[in-house]
Write a structure and sequence with these properties.
single chain; 358 residues; alpha+beta; Pnp Oxidase, Chain A; Nuclear Transport Factor 2, Chain: A; 22% helix; binds flavin mononucleotide
Length: 358
């Protein structure tokens, strides 16, 4: 991989688009603002970077107050206008319905789903910009933007800016969970051989990445779990069969028995299987054609399966064969894969259906 140097003034990371609210000589004003960041946890502080020549800059110096408002994707045009028009030449005071919280010179936009009012605690003058650090006095939202009491980015619908292509973007897909995915990654690292390279995406000699290898290992462990289900069942090792299931299992044998799928405990399942297979001399499951996909601490498995029941009897028709496929779902619990969905899809039955009747 060859890295190439690019212009160091290239602003290529997406920023959250906001509108900075101030009082410019007593008049409401808003400017487009992207350069902002949270800078302290407690007390909650926000850092904003405002060009030295902007009317907003002078306003913050005079009042020591400002607001940061998060517009929705429906407000792209008016937001951009606030970034090309200066209060020095154009009146932006009537663009929005505003409201106030505790601070008298920090107007907030009613139409924005999120509003913060801040009081300046530090000012850092840089060559072309000023970095104002404001303590967040209050944050406002509305019930409609919350899910489970927390602001929901899907409902807020903010937008982002990339430069120098100067384009606005909606927020994309939910791709992971903070403070959780790292825990999973740590678990994966623990399962990797300790060769000092764990955690990197180092390419192996055949071009496979460490993450790819980790995925293969997971898939193999999932297949082994399903294989153990069949082998332990054939061995009628019920405690081991039970241990392969999650505490509740969505169990669907309706292609064979009719009725409806049910939710069962591992004990219910092994009790049923122990009883159903008791009379047989041998049970033999053969599985293959595995298709496994690994997700977020979960896995789905499709496989072919043949179950052979053997019981010598007077008719000499000693076997019964169930041919079909399985759909299973597994979850990762305490470093192990557990089956929490089990579905058999019968294709056909061959042989003696009344084996036990002799
Ligand atoms: C999309 C966009 C984002 C902007 N982000 C910033 C920013 O983060 N900091 C800044 O100082 N100026 C930024 N600007 C420029 C100001 O918003 C612009 O100069 C504005 O006219 C200043 O208004 P004022 O003079 O009324 O304060 C941005 C402009 C646009 C169009």
């Amino acid at each position: 991989m060859r890295k190439i140097p690019v212009d160091k003034n290239l602003f290529c990371l997406p920023w959250t688009q906001t509108l900075l609210g101030t009082h410019v000589r007593g008049k409401v004003n808003f400017m487009a603002l992207d350069w902002l960041t949270r800078v302290n946890f407690d007390p909650a502080m926000l850092g904003i970077c405002v060009g030295s020549g902007h009317a907003s800059n002078q306003a913050i110096r005079e009042t020591g107050q400002f607001s940061v408002n998060v517009p929705t994707v429906d407000m792209v045009e008016v937001t951009d206008y606030c970034g090309i028009a200066s209060a020095k030449q154009e009146d932006k005071s009537k663009l929005f319905d505003v409201f106030y919280g505790a601070l008298e010179a920090a107007p907030m936009i009613a139409a924005c789903p999120l509003n913060m009012e801040c009081g300046v605690v530090q000012t850092l003058d840089l060559p072309t910009n000023t970095f104002f650090i404001g303590e967040i006095v209050a944050i406002y939202t509305e019930e409609q933007y919350l899910t489970g009491g927390k602001p929901d980015v899907k409902k807020i619908r903010p937008f982002l800016l990339t430069m120098p292509d100067n384009r606005f973007w909606a927020v994309g897909e939910h791709v992971g969970n903070a403070w959780k995915d790292g825990v999973k990654y740590r678990e994966k690292l623990k399962r990797q051989p300790a060769d000092g390279q764990a955690g990197t995406r180092r390419q192996t000699e055949n071009g496979t990445t460490a993450a790819g290898i980790s995925n293969l290992i997971e898939k193999q462990q999932v297949i082994e779990t399903v294989n153990r289900l069949f082998i332990n069942t054939d061995n009628r090792d019920w405690p081991r069969v039970k241990a392969l299931f999650s505490s509740r299992v969505f169990f669907d044998m309706t292609s064979l028995s009719g009725g409806q799928p049910v939710t069962m405990t591992p004990q219910d399942i092994v009790d049923g299987w122990e009883k159903g297979l008791k009379a047989l001399r041998a049970v033999h499951h053969q599985a293959g054609n595995y298709l496994v996909s690994i997700g977020d601490s979960e896995a789905t498995v499709f496989c072919y399966g043949i179950a052979l029941h053997y019981l010598p009897n007077n008719t000499s028709r000693n076997t019964r064969t169930f041919v079909g496929s399985y759909d299973m779902h597994l979850v990762r619990q305490d470093e192990e894969w557990k089956i929490d969905r089990f579905k058999f899809n019968l294709k056909f039955i061959e042989g003696n259906p009344d084996l036990e009747a002799g």
